[in-house]
Amino acid sequence: MEFSQVVAKRHSVRDFTDRPVSREDLVDIVRTAQRAPSWVNSQPWRVYAATGSTLETIKERHAADVAAGRKGSAELPVKARSLWSQRTQANMAALGEQIGAELGEGAQEFQASQGRLFNAQAVLYVTIPVDSTLWSFHDLGAFTAMLALAAADKGLGSINAYQLVMYPDEVRQTMGIGADETLAVGIALGYAADSALAGFSPSRVEVDQILTVKE
Questions:
Q1: CA distance 111 to 139
Q2: Burial 83-120 (b: 16+ CB within 10 A, else e)
Q3: DSSP 3-state of 185
Q4: What are the pLDDT digits (tens) for 140-166?
Q5: What domain of life does the UniProt record list for this protein's source (predicted)?
């Protein structure tokens, strides 16, 4: 697939089928993502892939915690949306409007899908060392973007979501993640379901709103 097609195809998929993701595809996806730019070639990332019964255990614990109303405690700091910049708040508000307009009554599924972790058939948990520099967070973003693009190139959907790391103790215990690593990002993978929720793709702002060119 041409690179431009891969980029255009990628969006956050919130509803996956029950079709498994192969171990071979997971290995290939991570291998491809290792080409991401890295400050001083430090490559701070590590990846833990949950599938099969391991992922089912995480899903069950997650659903129970959501049902019990347990508050999330992600390891990266979370800030109330009202404290974000005016520009980013406007983008988030536009997303809410688009969800209502395109999904209608199905908008309830947008939230419900989070509690079941989107029926993902694999989840990649990405860590970086505790007390990493901001440059390592740059690397983290580049690497996780490459993971999503590599998945799209294989015909897989993906979504980076807070829900996947909101209860880090569940993931740490199940995946054996050490105390010297920060559980930073979770990426759900699978084959997109034939549903409006799976096909929903948020709009992006026009390029002239973010790009300044001076000659």
A1: 30
A2: eeeeeeeeeeeeeeeebeebbeeebebbeebbeebbbb
A3: strand
A4: 999 999 999 999 999 999 999 999 999
A5: Bacteria
* Segment 34-43, tens digit of pLDDT: 999 999 999 9
Q: Note whether 182 and 204 are within 8 A (CB).
A: no
Give the number of other Cβ atoms within 10 Å of residue 145's Cβ.
14
Q: What is the pTM of this model?
A: 0.96
Task: Express each pLDDT in 17-53 by its tens digit.
Answer: 999 999 999 999 999 999 999 999 999 999 999 999 9
Which residues lie below 8 Å from residue 91, measured CB to CB, with a gap of 6+?
205
**Considering only CA atoms, which of 118, 99, 6, 102 is closest in space to residue 58?**
118
Alpha-carbon gap, residue 140 to 128, rounded angstroms: 8
Q: Residue 97's pLDDT is what?
A: 95
Nearest Cα to Cα of residue 191 among 124, 99, 118, 126? 118
Report whether 119 contacts 15 (CB < 8 A). yes
| Domains of the chain, each with CATH number or no CATH | 3-209 (3.40.109.10)
